[in-house]
């Protein structure tokens, strides 16, 4: 498995490129990186070319000096695909990655074959959510990324899985530690500032997949399934919180493969 890097403007994006076929881009969530998909990629790469990217400020990608918006992260993906001569692709985004996928669909609809939101939402932050983003920024500024990640990650798993899958919780924490302070702060600000993008789900002309965890406390079902259309496929994963790629990887693989093969 070889890691690649690509300059996108003044930033550097790190990614893995595996498999052959139509391109699927997997985009991780906040304080994640390409390793979020390590149990998913081996299955999808049997039939698809799978790119797993590290968003700016995360993993091995560079951290911009200036603040950014979700649209900037989407533009990073667009530049990467252009440099790789990939004209159309499927984007699958987890949480923050879903926000990026929605922004990409709004900005570059002609470059999408389809896209998916995994434990994500088209709604903007609530006022309480924005307040919590500010609290997160203050904590990272005061204490650094590690205490923040130690508190964040267990909340992403369902109550039961937090105990039974404690080794995975620890793995995800280690992934989170690779997020730079500035990268996490920039992402928190970008998520806080993102607009409502339900109009994208209502108007887009490509197939859309929406995946939600039955026990997800961060993105409950009513916020995940905000629009119903014939082009939208909805899937609920049982016994799962916000991290199906670790909590129920086999079920997530099944959902993704069924969608991609349609």
From TrEMBL:
Pfam families: Abhydrolase_1. SUPFAM superfamilies: alpha/beta-Hydrolases. Residues 23-249 form the AB hydrolase-1 domain. This is Pimeloyl-ACP methyl ester carboxylesterase. It comes from Metabacillus niabensis. Gene3D superfamilies: alpha/beta hydrolase.
């Amino acid at each position: 498995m070889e890691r690649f890097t690509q300059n996108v403007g003044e930033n550097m994006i790190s990614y893995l490129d595996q498999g052959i076929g139509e391109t699927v881009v997997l985009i991780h969530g906040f304080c994640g990186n390409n390793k979020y998909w390590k149990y998913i990629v081996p299955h999808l790469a049997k039939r698809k070319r799978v790119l797993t990217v590290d968003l700016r400020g995360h993993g091995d990608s560079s951290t911009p000096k200036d603040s950014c918006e979700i649209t900037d992260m989407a533009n990073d993906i667009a530049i990467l695909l252009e440099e790789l001569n990939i004209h159309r692709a499927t984007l699958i985004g987890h949480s923050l990655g879903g926000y990026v996928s929605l922004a990409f669909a709004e900005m570059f609809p002609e470059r999408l074959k389809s896209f998916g939101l995994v434990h994500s939402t088209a709604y903007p932050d609530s006022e309480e959510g924005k307040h919590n983003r500010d609290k997160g920024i203050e904590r990272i500024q005061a204490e650094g990324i590690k205490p923040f990640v130690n508190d964040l990650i267990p909340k992403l798993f369902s109550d039961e899985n937090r105990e039974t899958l404690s080794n995975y919780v620890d793995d995800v924490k280690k992934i989170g530690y690779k997020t730079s302070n500035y990268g996490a702060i920039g992402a928190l600000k970008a998520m806080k500032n993102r607009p409502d993008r339900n109009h994208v789900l209502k108007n887009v002309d490509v197939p859309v997949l929406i995946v939600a965890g039955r026990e997800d406390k961060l993105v409950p079902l009513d916020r995940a399934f905000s629009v119903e259309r014939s082009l939208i496929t909805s899937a609920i994963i049982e016994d799962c919180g916000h991290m199906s790629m670790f909590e129920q990887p086999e079920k997530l693989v099944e959902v993704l493969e069924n969608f991609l093969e349609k």
